[in-house]
Amino acid sequence: MSLGGRAGKGPIIPHDAKPHAAMLETPEIRMPTWLTLGGLLSGIALGVLLRGSAAEAWIGTVLGPVGTLWLNALQITIVPLVAALVVTGMMHMARAAQAGRMAALTLGTFAALLVAGSVMSALVTPALLRIFPVPTGVADGFAADLAGVEAGPVPVFADFVTSFIPTNIFAAASQTAMIPVVIFAAALALAATRLGPVQRDAIALFFASIANAMLVMIGWVLRIAPLGVFALGAKLGASTGLGAIATLGHYVLTVSAIGFVIFVGAYVLAAFRVRAGLGAFARAVLPAQAVALSTQSSLASLPPMLAASRRLNIAEDTADFVLPMAVTVFRATSPAMNLAVAIYTAHLMGVEITAGTLVAGVIVASLTTLGAPSLPGSISFVSSIGPIAIAMGVPVAPLAILVAVEMLPDIMRTIGNVTMNVAVTGAIDRYTPTKPVPDA
User: Most-buried pick from 117, 157, 160, 359 (CB within 10 A)?
Assistant: First the structure.
């Protein structure tokens, strides 16, 4: 996946940077997915087995510090990684927007859909949790298990607005105030595009280097993810019993349901904006969806997406421009599903969800997705959802457990992204003037 499809190596710098900068590539980072899931389940089983026995104290004294150290190592890179990714991603988008009318239309469409998805999630996720609440008693167990983790303050509207521009950006970063950090990084990126080529490329190279260094560090942490989630899972199992399994299943279904709304939205968009019609769209996109299901990779699905565009009679110039850009900077499900994870975590931890909280989540979910490079799912989970949770005053500790089951909602993420990519390409083609065919 990306949060939307696994991606291979690729530059995370503006597309027009100098050749020496283009040599910087995203490190290939892998998390032992099945081992991590096995570690979580084994840890929960151990916690359930020792629950109520004299040996239960051993979990807190021995495994507790292990889980805490792994969680801290996972969190420590969030602020510098997010700031660097926002700068490089926004520089990429700002330069691409100068390429012409199609680029501006494409990026504008991407931005509108990502924000709309965030707003939808902010409205639908709390409603889903009211209709289908977390299994009784389990939320209390999660909160007790993570009792030492403090939630950030719930944003008050006046403070929320004035915090957009802090007096000291470094102080804001030290306090993990994500909204001002993200806004400052975006403004810095846009300012950098106004500089000369040498200075612009130097800034791009610097932040790409910071981002890649952070990704290497996260890669080290994720290599020992099975051990970290085993320790956290054991504490969880001892606190909640087998109810932890029910909660994880409930979480997967809830977050996947938000992705399914985006998936359905792609068909709605196709019905009204793709020239070939809904039936032709459904048939054309099916092979790309099959590849997405089997690989969980938006990048691997690019060739069948291009083939689907040909079958829909989308202009080759449009498809060849829009689809690679969509795979690079547009993950339709990401802000919606990321925000859903943060809202779900708030419900688990008993954090109040207010209008200000949701506004903060929508802003950060949208800005951290716009222009963000395609990264492996476990990395995106850390770099995308962590800032949203922090901005909403939600503890990030439960994310270290939820990342172990991310492979399951990741399927919905990738299929939704691939389907929306083709639908958006068809919609943009409808509003792009076609070149006249020369006489034979």
Answer: 117
Q: What's the pTM value of the predicted model, to 2 decimals?
A: 0.75
pLDDT digits (tens, 9 = 90+) for 38-48: 888 888 888 87
- Name the nearest CA neighbour of 6 among 411, 438, 403: 411
Q: Is pLDDT above 50 for 1?
A: no
SS3 of residue 78 by DSSP: helix
| Domain 19-430 = CATH 3.40.50 | no
Question: What is the spatial distance between Cα 271 and Cα 196, in angstroms, rounded to a whole number?
Answer: 45
Helix axes 178-192 and 355-369, enclosed angle (nearest 10): 30
Per residue in 274-294, pLDDT tens? 988 999 999 999 999 988 887
Helices (H) and strands (E) in the chain, counts: 22, 0
Q: What does the alpha-carbon distance between residue 30 and residue 226 come to, in Å, rounded to a whole number?
A: 12
CA distances from 211 to 85, 181, 194, 236, 261 (A): 6, 15, 22, 32, 32
Question: Nearest-5° angle of CA 101, CA 15, CA 177?
Answer: 95
